[in-house]
Structures are given as C-alpha cells and as structure tokens.
Design brief:
alpha+beta, Cytidine Deaminase, domain 2, globular
C-alpha cells in the first residue's frame, strides 16, 4: 500500500485594495497601471505585474501576446526576467499581479500560471528568501501568499539536476 503524503498551503484574503498596507497598495496600483500597456489583441486578457525589491524600488511588466501563441509571455515572467537582467543582485521581496478583461469583469484574484510560479520560485531559491505574491482582479478581494513556493508544492529546482 502506498504512503499518502499531504500538504498545506495558505494565503490571506483582504476585502479590497484599501485593506492592504501602504506598500502593498502601491505595488498593486503599479501592477494595475502596467496592465494598461499590455499587448493582448488575441485574448483581450491584460495582466500587469509589479516587482518590489528590498530597497523599495519597483519595476513593472505586462503580458505580451503573439499570433503564434506559445511565443507570447506572461506579465509575471516579463517583470521578473527584466528585474533579474537589470538588477541581478537586488533581492526581490514581493510581486503584485492584476488582471483586466475586455470580455468580462474579473472581481476575483487570478493566480500566476504554473510556468510563472516556477520562474518566480527560481528567484526565491536564488536569494534564499520568500517572495510575497499579491493577486487581484479589477476590483474586490485581494489574495496574498507568503511565498511563491507556498503555491507550488514539489517545485523543480537545481537540486533535481544533480
């Protein structure tokens, strides 16, 4: 008989943007601003991401679609890769993600896809420090996870390459 292993994950639920700390509000507002310039002509699903470094600097990214769908890139990876390419030694402490759709109103937070979770987890490992994940829709509740790995059990890492 196989052994069953179970795990837990947790996240905080805030009623609105106004319920957040000032820095989390600022970060989420930057993500909302970033989604305005997203290039999403095919899905009409715009995503903005804002990365917070430990020194307080914030950089942003947004999703970039392509007619050859796999060639596009999610906002979270655009932001995190830009952060790493321009500021390789700055520790990332949080990332906020917000979405907006031309087709419907999204009032529930949308979490990053699996590929983005894996990419974000790489930077938790690199800096040996959790990255808080702040997720929001257009309005309504905001979810905050204490780390990316919290939402990605059994993540793949350099330890698997040995």
């Amino acid at each position: 008989m196989p052994k069953l292993i179970t795990g837990n994950y947790s996240y905080e639920v805030y009623q609105s943007l106004d319920s957040l700390s000032k820095i989390d509000q600022e970060l989420l507002l930057e993500a909302k601003k970033a989604l305005i310039n997203a290039y999403a002509p095919y899905s009409n699903f715009k995503v903005g991401a804002a990365v917070l470094f430990e020194d307080g600097k914030i950089i942003t990214g947004n999703n970039q679609e392509n007619a050859a769908y796999p060639s596009g890139l999610c906002a979270e990876r655009v932001a995190i890769f830009y952060a790493s390419s321009q500021y390789p030694d700055k520790k990332i402490i949080a990332i906020a993600v917000s979405v907006k759709s031309k087709n419907q109103i999204i009032n529930t937070p949308v979490p990053p896809c699996g590929a983005c979770r894996q990419a974000l987890a790489e930077y938790e490992i690199k800096f040996d420090s959790p990255i808080r994940l702040i997720m929001a829709g257009e309005d309504g509740e905001v979810f905050i996870s204490p780390s990316v790995s919290n939402l990605l059990p059994l993540l793949f890492s350099s330890k698997n390459l040995v």
